[in-house]
Amino acid sequence: MKRVFYPLAMATLLGFFGILFYYQQEPVRELDERGGSLLGGIGWLDAMSIIGEQWMIFSISFLLLVFLWIFRKNYRGMLFVFLAVGAGNVLNHLMKEWFERPRPNFPQELATYSFPSNHAMVGLLYLFTLAYFIGQSATKSMRLLVWCVAIALTILVALSRVAGGEHYISDILAGMFLGYTWFVLVAIWYEMRERQFRKRRPVQSE
To answer: Cα separations (Å) of 53 from 143, 158, 165, 195?
Structure first.
């Protein structure tokens, strides 16, 4: 991870807490209303939410685990996936139950709460995790393309929840902010463990 991503993770964490403390205040409510009126009802954008559905996240994450296991023998990478996507998903559901923010009024009734958006948070986590490992064996230009695609899909998935009326803008911003912070924390742990393993490896081979 490049060092520029570390302060960005701190900024997104602060952004998450800023939304958490002020999402019931008038300026954030106005942002939510404007976002809903601007994006609500855009059919093609609403359809992008399929990329962030639980079955899609599970399927892609499972394939990534198989790839890391069979082709890379990267067991720490497998743990990366479990921590980033699996634990991130659990964290998201716990926070929904903790804050109990009602969803916007829309025709479909959902049993879960609104804050923070699962599609925005876990969608980011699994797409960024996928891009992280795909980029490891790619050229610099291909790595840039992979990350641009992951970022674009993450934004589209997040905005799709506003287009479909399932979330407020503040929900998806909070989800993306917290998801990115969690991803960087897991990546820092993973890269520290990788460096420690490489340092010990010559000693073990003697």
So the answer is: 25, 11, 15, 34
Per-residue pLDDT 10s for the chain (206 aa) are 566 778 888 899 999 999 989 888 888 888 888 988 888 888 899 999 999 999 999 999 999 999 999 988 899 999 999 999 999 999 999 998 898 788 887 555 556 788 899 999 999 999 999 999 998 887 888 989 999 999 999 999 999 999 988 889 999 999 999 999 999 999 999 988 877 777 776 544 43
pTM of the entire predicted model: 0.89
Give the helix ranges, DSSP H, for 68-139: 75-81, 88-99, 118-136
Full 3-state SS string of 123-191: HHHHHHHHHHHHHHCCCHHHHHHHHHHHHHHHHHHHHHHHHCCCCCHHHHHHHHHHHHHHHHHHHHHHH
Residues 124, 150, 165, 172: is their CA dihedral positive or negative?
A: positive
